[in-house]
Amino acid sequence: MSTFFAKKEEQKPRWYVIDASNQVLGKVAVKAANVLRGKIKPTFTRHVDAGDFVVVVNAEKVVVTGRKETAKTYMTYSQYPGKEKYRTVKQVRASHPEKLIEHAVKGMIPKNRLGRQMITKLKVYAGTAHPHTAQKPEPISI
Predict the structure, then answer these.
(1) Is residue 1 in a domain?
(2) Distance between CA atoms of 142 and 135, rounded to whole angstroms?
(3) Which of 16, 21, 40, 127 would give a disulfide with 58, using CB separation of 3.0 to 4.6 Å?
(4) What is the DSSP letter of 63?
């Protein structure tokens, strides 16, 4: 008997929606990363993009534990000397709350071409409304 390998052409991606309100950031990110990679499917193959689409809503209501709200920082660099900026979770949440989830999920997927392809299937929205109702996303619990 030969080993089964999933093929990209045979995969039919599904859509899932995750409600992040009052959920811990890391747990939301782990669930989203596993669905993006396809680890929830029995046909998981590590070198094939067999994952599904993930829509995360209520990104501004995600919770961080401990003192991370003020102690955890995110760094951006503009490629100019001395132009690096540090922002706390509180500052990022005030301006772009979807970046919190995107950054956490991006750190949990492979750092290669396949990972860059997978991250495009992640859709994060600050509020409850999203434009993907035509795809009929299924709610998934954390």
Answers:
(1) no
(2) 21
(3) 21
(4) B
Report CA torsion sign: 53, 49, 38, 110.
Answer: negative
Whether residue 127 lies inside any domain: the answer is yes
Residue type, 78: S
List of long-range contacts for 5-11, beta carbons under 8 Å, 24+ apart: 5/45, 5/48, 6/38, 6/43, 6/44, 6/45, 6/48, 6/50, 7/48, 8/48, 8/49, 8/50, 11/38, 11/43, 11/48, 11/49, 11/50
pTM equals 0.93
Place 83 in a pLDDT band, splitting at 50, 70 and 90. very high
Which pLDDT value is given to residue 33?
98
Number of domains in the chain: 1
Nearest to 126 by CA among 107, 105, 106, 102: 102
Residue 102 placed within a domain: yes
Strands in 13-101 per DSSP E: 15-19, 53-57, 73-77, 84-88
Q: What pLDDT score was predicted for residue 46?
A: 92
- Banded pLDDT at 91 (limits 50, 70, 90): very high
